[in-house]
Amino acid sequence: MASSTSSCAPLLLNGLASSSPTRTRAFFPSPVSPFSPFSALTSIRASSQRSPLAPPPRAAGFDGDQDNRVQELRVPDSWLTPAGAAQESEWLRETLHKWLDGEYCPEPANVDISNTAARSYRESLTAKQSDVGEILMKMVGDLQELSYQESFHGAFSSANAAVRLITQRMESSSGE
C-alpha cells in the first residue's frame, strides 16, 4: 500500500533529541518562502556572519547633522475614512487568511485569527489611529484573546505577519 504524505503531515522521528532511543516525537517541517517573515531562510541568514550595518540615513532639513530618531510609519489618511477602513480591513482579512494557510497548513484557527486581526485593524482605522506601531500593539492585544492550542501560529507572529502585509501594501500603493 503506497503512502502519501501531505506537506502538513508531521514526520515521526525515532530517538531524535530524546534521551531514550525508543521515544518518538513529531516533527513538523517548515516550508521556506522568500515572502514569509518567519521562514527557515531567516534563521539560516541570522546565524551567518554579518557585515557591518550602514549608517542610518540623514533626515532632510538637518544641515548634515545625523538624525537618530526613529521615523514613524503611518497608514495613508485615505484609509482612515469609514469606507477606507472597511476596504482595508477586508483586504487584510482575506490576505492574512491566505498567508496563514500557506505558511503551514489550512486550519480552522486561521479563520479566527484573520477575522480578529481585521476587526482590530478596522477599529484602529475608524478611531483615526494611523501609527503602525500602535495598530500592531492593539492587534496583539486583541489576538491574545484567541486560543492557539490547535494552531501553528500565535498572537505575536500573527500580528507581525498582518503588519508586514499592511506595510507591503503601503509600499505598493505609494508607488502608484
Brief descriptors of the model:
disordered N terminus; mainly alpha; 5 helices; globular; 46% helix; 176 residues
Question: How does this structure look, described?
Answer:
The protein is mainly alpha-helical. The protein has a domain at 77-174. The chain contains five helices and two strands, in the order ββααααα. A two-stranded antiparallel ribbon has the order 1-2. Helix 2 crosses helix 5, helix 3 crosses helix 4 (132-143) and helix 4 runs antiparallel to helix 5 (155-174). The protein is globular and about 35 Å long. It starts with 10 loop residues before the first strand and ends with a helix.
User: Which bin fits the share of residues in helices?
Assistant: 40-55%
- Binned strand content: under 5%
Residue-averaged pLDDT, rounded? 74
Topology pattern, helix = H, strand = E? EEHHHHH
Shape: globular
Count of helical stretches: 5
Spatially, the strands of the biggest sheet line up as 1-2
Count of strand segments? 2
